[in-house]
């Protein structure tokens, strides 16, 4: 939107309307027996807890100065169960039902953009969370009156819980958007349910810890706000990541789905890196860098599996968007759809991650076994990915590109299992076999007894990597050469139809 | 508005659902899409409506490709699937209102559009009913209303008459006639071929993903059944003249296979209307007391049975 567009948008503020998805979802939610039932159950739980606390308190002679705090911890637990488990489950199931191709009502026939659809679903989840939080508010206020918990602590805990609910809600929507068959969707739902169930306990434990410590006294310090802002930033980064991925999943296949995701990951890589650097400087502990290094490493490994499963063929729509300038084509190649550009992007990001750690934190980057083992692991990941790519493009070129990720996973599994299978047939397989050197097996890096041999894994994986780069070079070259704008063509005139002499009927 | 289906091909695993088909139709045309079950009709319609992506080929809606610009294409095409609305927990009004919002209609414009659609599809009386409480015919109307809410230029209707009672079918036919008068380009699939003959200008007959016949209804009928059957009935009481009439007919040019069928004489005419006139003139000259002389041409159903083999894939 240009400046005039933004101006017009704000000058027409009277015509602003809620996202249609939010309106629809909320209309449906208020009618849903699941939502109303859960809300009633939630209120009943809060009411019974309050009543029980008051009844037991009535038997004590002296006043309990912690009563409010104890009640609040129970309320927080019930609120966490209701909002962290129920709301994402409800939203996830609804999105999954609408995502089915035999139900073309929403995702396929309306002109709502994918961003608006996902944003609408997310906002609906957030509004529902607010509904549950609001319903809980009188009980929370009551606990504050009873003493044992201060208002800043209540708001601090509720705010963080709300952030967690939003992030989990977005993850549930993302999982629901994955184009999978019904059994897989049921499996995802089950996994999501179990994961959110296990998330609730640390959330409650953390809340209790904050409750006991109280935040009222620390609010004046700069550290408190720095920590809080960092937590908000990380929560927003995670939510945003799953948001862009969900949008990419529901975008048309012909669109440039990779672009926003790769840009987003690159941006959060940089921003969270700077944030981490700030904390390292502030705290004076270089090990804090692992809080950025390890999650980014995992994120890039996951990206690697996705990018090799990208198609080689760019749609006309994407090709039309390729910049004409040769200079601009290089960054476009990295960020646009396509396995080759994606591989290069992950490679550069991974290299930049290791380089940043090695240069800025030499004590960690160059000497620690953690860094070395991660380098070997990264090299193995690329080996498996490039081998999978080579096998797919050479032996199954007509099969869908999304099989490449599966082939790479099979290659990895074969490499990890092969040494044990060979040892089994040689009758030398023991429980300690895995502690010896097994080149090609990425898991062996962490199971070896002698850490000094990690360097062997590094050399082996780099050799394999070089071989695979050579084997995939012709394919990569073709991808680079094909990354150009399509030739301008005039749309052909089709002559078939009623009354037309060249119709197939007349042939 | 011109809808051009270009060399469309869709493969599901080893099954070729749509095999390189091409046809086109324009605004104001109602184009019938006919074929046995599993012929590839729904797949083609889903591709036109941007729900499926073709394996190869394309569909252009006035030059807008459904593969390259599905978002733009969705503004042009309204799709009425053979499945009914999935949002069972919404009222008719809420359903139409949601799609009005989804297509960017705001405030009064949206209210007017919803009211107009309710009136056009005659669902105003049930606007506060839940979708799950509606009959199949009513749901079908609501789905049609949903597709029309943003006034698309192209309508794709997949089996809209399936399961409707005779009254609802007549009403649907009237709605479609009205829509074609409003210059919509309509593609409709149906197994009720007699109805298609009445409302369609053109037809595509498809089987096993391949087009067997396409063209205007007249073209297809002419091409597939070039011979017309003529029925002649003599005045009651003059039936004894029938053998003589048959003999006379067999000596007449353009007449073949004359026979008596339940007191009527039927013969096949290989000539055009002028030949029919000549035959009638000759029979009158010969003093046959004719009370009925009518031509019957094979209908779409006959042609469908003739050109298709009922093969599924």
Q: Can you describe what's shown?
A:
The complex is a heterodimer of chains A (507) and B (313). With 507 residues, chain A is mostly helical. The radius of gyration of chain A is 28 Å and the shape is globular. Chain A has 18 helices and no strands. Chain A is 73% helix and 0% strand. In chain A, α3 (33-59) runs parallel beside α5 (114-145), α8 (222-250) packs antiparallel against α9 (258-283) and α15 packs across α16 (403-425). Chain A has helices spanning 3-11, 20-31, 33-59, 67-99, 114-145, 151-177, 182-213, 222-250, 258-283, 290-308, 316-320, 326-335, 339-360, 362-365, 369-395, 403-425, 444-447, 454-482. Chain A folds into two domains: 17-251; 252-484. Chain B has eleven helices and 14 strands. The model of chain B has no long low-confidence stretch (mean pLDDT 84). Chain B is α/β, with parallel strands linked by helices. In chain B, 36% of the residues lie in helices and 29% in strands. Chain B has helices spanning 41-48, 70-76, 92-102, 107-120, 136-148, 166-181, 193-199, 217-224, 242-250, 273-285, 300-307; strands at 2-12, 15-26, 30-34, 56-61, 64-65, 77-80, 154-158, 185-189, 202-207, 210-216, 228-234, 255-261, 264-269, 290-296. A six-stranded mixed beta sheet of chain B has the order 6-7-8-3-9-10, sandwiched between helices. Chain B has a four-stranded antiparallel beta sheet with strand order 2-1-4-5, covered by helices on one side. In chain B, strands 12-13-11-14 form a four-stranded antiparallel beta sheet, with helices on one face. Chain B is elongated. In chain B, β7, α6 (166-181) and β8 form a beta-alpha-beta unit. Chain B folds into two domains: 2-216, P-loop containing nucleotide triphosphate hydrolases (Rossmann fold, 3-Layer(aba) Sandwich); 226-296, 2-Layer Sandwich (Alpha-Beta Plaits), CATH 3.30.70.980. At the A-B interface, α2 of A face β1, β2, α2, α3 and β10 of B.
């Amino acid at each position: 939107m240009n400046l005039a567009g933004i101006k017009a948008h704000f000058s027409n503020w009277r015509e602003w309307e809620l996202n249609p998805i939010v309106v629809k979802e909320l209309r449906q939610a208020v009618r849903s027996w699941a939502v109303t039932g859960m809300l009633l159950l939630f209120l009943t739980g809060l009411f019974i807890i309050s009543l029980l606390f008051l009844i037991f308190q009535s038997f004590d002679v002296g006043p309990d100065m912690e009563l409010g705090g104890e009640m609040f911890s129970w309320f927080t637990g019930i609120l966490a169960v209701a909002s962290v488990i129920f709301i994402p489950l409800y939203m996830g199931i609804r999105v999954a039902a609408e995502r089915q191709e035999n139900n073309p009502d929403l995702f396929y026939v309306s002109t709502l953009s994918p961003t608006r659809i996902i944003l609408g679903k997310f906002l609906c989840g957030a509004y529902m969370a607010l509904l549950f939080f609001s319903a809980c508010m009188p009980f929370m206020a009551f606990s504050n009156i009873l003493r044992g918990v201060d208002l800043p602590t209540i708001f601090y805990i509720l705010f963080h819980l709300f952030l967690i609910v939003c992030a989990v809600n977005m993850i549930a929507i993302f999982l629901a958007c994955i184009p999978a068959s019904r059994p897989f969707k049921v499996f995802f739902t089950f996994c999501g349910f179990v994961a959110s169930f296990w998330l609730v306990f640390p959330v409650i434990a953390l809340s209790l810890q904050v409750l006991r410590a109280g935040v009222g006294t620390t609010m004046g310090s700069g550290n408190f706000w720095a920590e809080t802002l960092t937590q908000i930033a990380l929560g927003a980064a995670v939510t945003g990541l799953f948001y862009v991925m969900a949008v990419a999943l529901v975008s048309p296949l012909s669109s440039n789905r990779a672009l926003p995701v790769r840009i987003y990951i690159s941006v959060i890589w940089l921003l969270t890196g700077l944030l981490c650097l700030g904390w390292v400087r502030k705290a004076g502990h270089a090990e804090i860098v692992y809080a950025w290094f390890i999650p980014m490493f995992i994120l890039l490994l996951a990206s690697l599996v996705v990018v090799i499963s990208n198609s080689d063929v760019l749609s006309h729509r994407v090709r039309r968007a390729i910049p004409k300038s040769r200079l601009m084509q290089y960054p476009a190649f990295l960020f646009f759809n396509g396995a080759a550009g994606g591989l290069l992007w992950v490679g550069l990001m991974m290299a930049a991650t290791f380089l940043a750690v090695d240069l800025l934190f030499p004590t960690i980057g160059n000497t620690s076994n953690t860094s070395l083992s991660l380098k070997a692991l990264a090299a193995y990941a690329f080996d498996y990915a490039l081998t999978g790519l080579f096998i797919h493009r050479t032996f199954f070129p007509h099969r869908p590109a999304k099989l490449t990720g599966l082939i790479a996973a099979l290659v990895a599994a074969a490499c990890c299992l092969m040494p044990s299978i060979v040892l089994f047939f040689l009758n030398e397989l023991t429980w300690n076999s895995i502690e010896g050197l097994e080149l090609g097996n990425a898991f062996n890096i962490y199971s070896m007894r002698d850490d000094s041999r990690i360097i062997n894994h590094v050399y082996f994986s780099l050799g394999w990597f070089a071989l695979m780069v050579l084997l995939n070079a012709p394919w990569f070259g073709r991808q680079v050469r094909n990354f150009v704008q399509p030739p301008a063509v005039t749309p052909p005139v089709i002559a078939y139809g009623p009354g037309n002499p060249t119709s197939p009927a007349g042939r | 508005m011109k809808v051009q289906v270009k060399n469309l091909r869709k493969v599901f695993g080893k099954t070729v659902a749509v095999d390189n088909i091409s046809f086109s139709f324009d605004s104001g045309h109602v184009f019938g899409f006919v074929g046995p079950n599993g012929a590839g009709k729904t797949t083609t319609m889903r591709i036109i409506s941007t729900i499926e992506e073709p394996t190869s080929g394309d569909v252009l809606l006035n030059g807008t490709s459904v593969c390259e610009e599905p978002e733009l294409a969705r503004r042009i095409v309204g799709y009425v699937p053979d499945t009914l609305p999935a949002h069972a927990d919404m009222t008719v009004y809420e359903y139409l209102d949601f799609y009005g919002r989804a297509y960017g209609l705001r405030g009064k414009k949206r209210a007017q559009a919803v009211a107009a659609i309710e009136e056009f599809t005659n669902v105003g009386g049930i606007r506060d009913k839940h979708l799950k409480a509606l009959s199949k015919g009513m749901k079908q109307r609501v789905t049609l209303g949903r597709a029309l809410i943003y006034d698309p230029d192209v309508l794709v209707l997949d089996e809209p008459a399936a399961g409707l009672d005779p009254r609802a079918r007549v009403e649907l036919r009237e709605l479609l006639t009205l829509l074609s008068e409003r210059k919509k380009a309509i593609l409709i699939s149906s197994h009720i071929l007699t109805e298609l003959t009445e409302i369609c200008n053109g037809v595509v007959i498809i089987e096993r993903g391949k087009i067997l016949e396409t063209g205007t209804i007249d073209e297809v009928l002419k091409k597939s059944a070039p011979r017309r059957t003529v029925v002649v009935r003599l005045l009651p009481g003059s039936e004894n003249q029938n053998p003589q009439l048959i003999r006379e007919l067999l000596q007449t040019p353009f007449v073949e296979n004359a026979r008596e069928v339940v007191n009527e004489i039927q013969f096949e005419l290989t000539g055009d209307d002028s030949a029919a006139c000549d035959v009638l003139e000759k029979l009158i000259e010969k003093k046959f007391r004719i009370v009925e002389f009518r031509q019957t041409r094979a209908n779409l159903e006959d042609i469908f049975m003739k050109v298709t083999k009922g093969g599924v894939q």
